[in-house]
Write a structure and sequence with these properties.
Helix content is 42%, strand content 23%. It is of the alpha+beta class and 197 residues long. It has two domains: 129 residues, 2-Layer Sandwich (Beta Polymerase, domain 2), CATH 3.30.460; 66 residues, no CATH class. The strands form two sheets. Strands 1-2-5-4-3 form a five-stranded mixed β-sheet. A two-stranded antiparallel ribbon has the order 6-7. Strand 6 and strand 7 form a beta hairpin.
């Protein structure tokens, strides 16, 4: 029945529960991570970075139940070279994207190492999130308009707690420092933020 369908937030919460029940190491990234540190927006998928052992993906989908389908085709993500699997919640076609931790990408590893256990209000769960700086760094790498809007949102809300030296170090390595400076012009009340001195 239509009334029994889960909404996108409930599907994401169910994915977090299943990942933890299956003891799969993960971080919740993408739109849900920027929502946690910034101004919430709607998102059409839930992105996770995962470290999976043989058999754990199948166990995850079994745990989620028959309304979820695993696409066994592995897809490539172009920016970091990560591979991903997609799990689809069939009633709504909402996708859970499971990016494998890419040990060949230095920031991918660092982001996972710095993850934090936080209460994610949107899904009413504790979950593993990247640190706020790593959300900004990754979204600057993607450079899609929605990601750049997320950067402004996160800097607006969480700018005062950001480790600016860490952020500048990675944006220099990735060649995104000038983009960050442009986006900072869109952030209200920059007092005390990103001080170079």
């Amino acid at each position: 029945m239509l009334g029994c369908w889960m909404n996108n937030v409930e599907v994401t919460a169910a994915a977090v529960d299943a990942l933890e029940a299956c003891q799969i190491d993960y971080i919740l990234v993408g739109g849900f991570s920027s929502n946690a540190y910034g101004i919430a927006r709607s998102t059409h998928d839930a992105d996770f970075v995962v470290v999976v052992k043989p058999g754990q993906l199948r166990a995850l989908v079994d745990r989620l139940g028959p309304e979820f389908s695993l696409d066994r085709q592995i897809r490539m993500e172009g920016i970091t070279g990560s591979v991903r699997n997609v799990v689809t919640y069939l009633p709504s076609n909402f996708q859970i994207e499971l990016f494998r931790l890419n040990t060949r990408d230095e920031h991918h590893e660092e982001r996972f190492r710095r993850r934090r256990r936080e209460k994610v209000e949107e899904i009413q769960r504790e979950a593993w999130l990247p640190a706020v700086e790593d959300v900004v760094i990754q979204k600057l790498r993607w450079q899609r308009r929605k990601d750049l809007d997320d950067v402004v949102s996160v800097l607006t809300v969480s700018g005062p707690i950001i480790d600016w030296a860490y952020l500048r170090s990675w944006t220099t390595k990735h060649g995104t420092g000038s983009l960050l400076q442009e986006l900072l012009k869109e952030v209200p009340d920059l007092t005390g933020m990103d001080e170079e001195s």
